[in-house]
Amino acid sequence: MSRARFIPLIVFALLVGAVAWRLAVPRDDRVPSKLEGQKLPAFALPPAIAGKPGLASADLAKGAPRLVNIFASWCVPCVAEAPVLLDLARRGVKIDAIAIRDKPEDVAAFLAQHGDPFARIGSDDRSQVQIALGSSGVPESFVIDGQGVIRAQHIGPIMPGDIAGILEAIEDAK
Amino acid sequence: MKRVLFLFLLVAAPLHADSDLPPSRWANQQLPDPRQEAAATALMQEIRCLVCQGQSIADSDAELAGDMRALVRERIARGERPEAVRGWLVERYGAWISYRPPVEPLSWPLWAAPIALLLAGAWLLRGRFRRRP
Predict the structure, then answer these.
(1) Contact B19/A101, CB-based, under 8 Å?
(2) Domain ranges (residues) in chain A
(3) Which numeric CATH code is attached to A30-172?
């Protein structure tokens, strides 16, 4: 019986331990797409701005790997990501984009202000292609190989520290 | 100073990370067929919101949740079965997206927990039911 009285204390210590562990190691609440390694779902999006073509899944299976950036003019971290995308484009990465829930004039203003590294921009004004890709927010980026297979996903803004990883993923997709 | 700060607060426009576009048509509008709407609602209550994780898409005000409600309603209106729509979402986001966990080795402890807790309770209570001399 004398040992049994320590049981509540042990239970309490376990509880404190569990809470302390979660405070020290925060939960990773990113939701990765399960489509990595699979063929891109078929889609065809209209142009997001005048003078630049829209984006269809067929444009992403033309023999060379491409980066597809999911962004929006109303997305704050996308502003932080913009110079890094320009840098990637300068290093020869072919980048297309999907603009989520956006107006043509807002996309044009965003690109005029923050630079335009995109070859094509599709307009997904009801997030339906975003959901079909298994993407859960903006910004996100997908590396698509020349056969239209999703090879890698980057969740959140691509920061300068991520450039090496993206270039490697593009190289791997060749 | 405090009063000035308070005035600033009043005129400050909140920085919101939402788009300017209106919600999808079927995000907040019921389907005309009540049976389809009931099926869609039942499914929406079991699909997790990607933005406000922990809420269902039926409860969440996030734009993405609205677009997911529209997706569910449109697919059900086209005659797709709710389980097919759930499967389509699970294919993309994993079993995480559904509030109905699949029965698989990883989730066996979850399904066994109620039985284990009942047995543990019976064991704790066994002394109370013993006949006293």
Answers:
(1) yes
(2) 30-172
(3) 3.40.30.10
- The domain made up of B23-102 has a fold known as Helicase, Ruva Protein; domain 3 (1.10.8)
- pLDDT per residue over A75-115, tens digit each? 999 999 999 999 999 999 999 999 999 999 999 999 999 99
Task: Please check whether residue B13 touches A, CB under 8 A.
Answer: no
Transcribe B70-103 into DSSP letters. Answer: HHHHHHHHTT--HHHHHHHHHHHH-GGGBSS---
Residue A51 distance to chain B (closest CA, Å): 22
Q: Please name the member of A29, A127, A134 whose beta carbon is closest to the beta carbon of B53.
A: A29
Q: In what helix (H) or strand (E) does residue A97 lie, and over which residues does it extend?
A: strand A95-100
pLDDT tens track for A28-82: 888 999 999 999 999 999 999 999 999 999 999 999 999 999 999 999 999 999 9
Name the helix (H) or strand (E) containing A142. strand A140-144
CA separation for the pair A153, B127 (Å, rounded): 57
In angstroms, rounded to a whole number, what is the distance separating the alpha carbons of residues A111 and A159?
18
Q: By C-alpha distance, which of A98, A114, A89, A113 is closest to A48?
A: A98
Q: Mind telling me how many Å the CA of B14 is from chain A's nearest CA?
A: 13
Write down the H helix ranges in chain A: 7-24, 76-90, 104-114, 128-132, 163-172
Amino acid (1-letter code) at residue B64:
L
B120 and chain A: CB distance < 8 Å anywhere?
Answer: no
* Closest CA–CA distance from residue A100 to any residue of chain B (Å): 8
**Least CA distance to A133: which residue of chain B?**
B92
